[in-house]
Each structure stands twice: as structure tokens, then as C-alpha cells.
Write a structure and sequence with these properties.
The chain has helices spanning 7-27, 43-58, 74-86, 105-111, 123-131, 141-152, 172-181, 196-202, 246-250, 263-282, and strands at residues 3-4, 33-39, 62-68, 92-95, 161-165, 185-189, 205-208, 226-229, 233-234, 240-241, 255-256. The strands form 3 sheets. It has a 6-stranded parallel beta sheet, with helices on both faces. It has a 3-stranded parallel beta sheet with strand order 3-2-4, sandwiched between helices. The chain contains 10 helices and 11 strands. The chain is globular and about 50 Å long. 42% of the residues lie in helices and 15% in strands. The chain starts with a strand and ends with a helix. It folds into 2 domains: 29-115, Leucine Dehydrogenase, chain A, domain 1 (Rossmann fold, 3-Layer(aba) Sandwich); 141-264, Rossmann fold (3-Layer(aba) Sandwich), CATH 3.40.50. Helix 2 links the parallel strand 2 and strand 3 (62-68). The chain binds the ligand Nc1nc2c(c(=O)[nH]1)N[C@@H](CN(C=O)c1ccc(C(=O)N[C@@H](CCC(=O)O)C(=O)O)cc1)CN2. The site of the ligand Nc1nc2c(c(=O)[nH]1)N[C@@H](CN(C=O)c1ccc(C(=O)N[C@@H](CCC(=O)O)C(=O)O)cc1)CN2 has 19 residues, from helix 2, strand 4, helix 6 and helix 10.
Length: 284
């Protein structure tokens, strides 16, 4: 019988733990501060940023949702980030992706102070993740949320064969580093991979995040594999679906994340957790 990994429930539990940490910080006179920058009016980004700001408010953070027009210039956006870098009440800064074409995404990420980079995208923090040197640093929230889910459901990764389909900066690459740091053997698959079928059939854990609805089927994976779906797509009826054919894959997997209610809610709960991490580290 397949186990459904309930991200919604885990996210609630993580938020409860984060609330306790906020109370401890407030007792010391520190209020965690999160600034979310939204450029333009992408409908999905508007929902995600609103949900981030709402959750931050619920947890008692100081929360700023800074909305900028899609016509904003690179200089204006970077100036806003520099202001937030200099604001002592703000511990975490993120700029919602995707960004309009006139904006250089790397320049934006590099302008966010590494100490406030709550998305963990700044190359300084990415380098620390790959170095695995034990220091404090933020990590991209979706992959960190995936690792928390596996840990909470007591699914070990050490010594396991893991296949990650998709090599994005947001998910695939940081997840690869997190998995390797925990002694998994990781294979990254992408559109130019040959022998993808072979690697998939041997994987103990399969993670898919490529934005293609119903991409992964039962016949692609080994019996008893754990399947993590990081995809977010809309079907013809407008329903939210992942990259995995959930009903089909559930017939052979030992555990699976649903969409909605799997990895997605963990992304926002991890963002809250990481804002509190940054507030704590900045006061150590
Ligand atoms: N700066 C960033 N931009 C983006 C990130 C990110 O981590 N940092 N990730 C994604 C979008 N994202 C967070 O920003 C995100 C996606 C999905 C969910 C979520 O809760 N999904 C729910 C369904 C919600 C719905 O009904 O639409 C679920 O899967 O159950 C949260 C956050 C891209 N941009």
C-alpha cells in the first residue's frame, strides 16, 4: 500500500515549531523580518507572494510585500534590494521568480546580502552548500522542504540511489547537493540524458521537477520507489497537477507526494523556518 506524504500536515507542524521559535526571539526583543519583492503581475507569483506575506503575518513576523511594476528597471530593483539590505528590521529578503526579461536575474540574486538571502540562491550560499562545511547558511526552500519531508517520514537517503529529473537552480541542483551531503548516490537527468530509462528503473528515490503534467508513469520506475513530485502544472480543466501521473505511479511506489498538498506547502513553511534561522544567526 503506497504511503501518501502529506506536505500540508507537515507544513502545519513546521509552522507550529517556527511559532515557538518566534516567541523565544521576541522574548529577547527580536522580531523576525521578511521582505518579499514581487515584480509584475504574474497570477501565480501574486498568489505565492501573498501567501508568503500572510504566513509571515500569522507567525508574528515584521513582513513587507514590496510590489513593483513589470516595467521596473534593473537599477530601480537593485536600489530597492540595497535599501532592504540596509534595514536592520529585515532578516530575510527574496525576489519572486520569474522576473521580466529586462531584469538580469543573477545581478538581482548577487545584490541580496548573503546574510539575508532567505531563498539561498546567492552564489556565496550555493558555494557553502556544495562545500558542506558545517557553517550556517540558507538553502533553497523547496529542496530543503523535500529533505525535511523525507526525514519526518523516516525515509533514509544515505546509500540510496536517487534520480532527480530537472536541473534547475531552484530545485534540482540544490537538491542534488543536499542529497550528496547526506551520502546518497545522485543521478541528474535532463532532456539530453541518454539511458534515462535505465537510471530511473534502478532508483530508490525519484524526484521530478520539470513542469510537464503526467510525465512520470508507473512503468518508468522500480517497484517500491519513493516518488517526490515538485511539478506545478494546470490541466485542461485548470486543476493543479504535478509532473507525476499520481494514480498510476501510486500502484507501484512505496511512498509518493501529492499535488496539491505535497512539496508546495513545505516551500512556504521552510521559508518561514529559514527567516527565523537568519534572525537567530544575525543575533549570535
Ligand atoms: N524567489 C522564489 N521564486 C519562486 C520560488 C521560490 O522558492 N523562490 N518557488 C516557486 C513558487 N513557490 C514559491 O515561491 C511556490 C509554489 C507552490 C506553492 C504551493 O503551496 N503550492 C500548493 C498549491 C497552491 C495553489 O493552489 O496554487 C501545493 O502544491 O499544494 C508554494 C510556493 C517559483 N518561484
Amino acid at each position: 500500500m503506497v504511503k501518501i506524504l502529506n506536505g500540508k500536515k507537515l507544513a502545519q507542524q513546521l509552522n507550529e515549531h517556527t511559532a515557538q521559535r518566534v516567541a523565544n526571539l521576541k522574548a529577547k526583543g527580536i522580531v523576525p523580518g521578511l521582505a518579499v519583492v514581487l515584480v509584475g503581475e504574474d497570477p501565480a507569483s501574486m498568489i505565492y507572494t501573498r501567501n508568503k506575506a500572510r504566513q509571515a503575518d500569522k507567525l508574528g513576523f515584521k513582513s513587507i510585500l514590496k510590489k513593483m511594476p513589470s516595467t521596473v528597471t534593473q537599477d530601480e530593483l537593485l536600489a530597492t534590494i540595497r535599501q532592504l539590505n540596509a534595514d536592520p528590521c529585515i532578516h530575510g529578503i527574496l525576489v519572486q521568480e520569474p522576473l521580466p526579461d529586462q531584469i538580469n536575474q543573477s545581478a538581482v540574486i548577487e545584490t541580496i546580502s548573503p546574510e539575508k538571502d532567505v531563498d539561498g540562491f546567492n552564489p556565496i550560499n550555493v558555494g557553502k552548500l556544495y562545500a558542506n562545511d558545517g557553517r550556517h547558511f540558507p538553502v533553497a526552500c523547496t529542496p530543503r522542504g523535500v529533505m525535511t519531508m523525507l526525514e519526518q517520514y523516516q525515509i533514509p537517503v544515505a546509500g540510496k540511489d536517487v534520480v532527480i529529473i530537472g536541473r534547475s537552480r531552484l530545485v534540482g541542483k540544490p537538491l542534488q547537493a543536499l542529497m550528496i551531503n547526506q551520502n546518497a548516490t545522485v543521478t541528474m537527468l535532463h532532456h539530453a540524458s541518454t539511458d534515462a530509462e535505465y537510471y530511473l528503473k534502478h532508483a530508490d528515490i525519484v524526484v521530478v521537477g520539470i513542469g510537464k503534467a503526467n510525465f512520470l508513469h508507473a512503468s518508468d520506475i522500480k517497484n517500491g520507489a519513493v516518488v517526490i513530485d515538485v511539478g506545478i502544472n494546470r490541466d485542461e480543466q485548470g486543476h493543479l497537477v504535478g509532473d507525476v501521473d499520481f494514480d498510476d505511479v501510486s500502484s507501484v511506489a512505496s511512498a509518493i507526494t501529492p499535488v496539491p498538498g505535497g512539496v508546495g506547502p513545505m516551500t512556504i513553511a521552510t521559508l518561514m523556518q529559514q527567516t527565523v534561522d537568519l534572525a537567530e544567526w544575525s543575533n549570535q
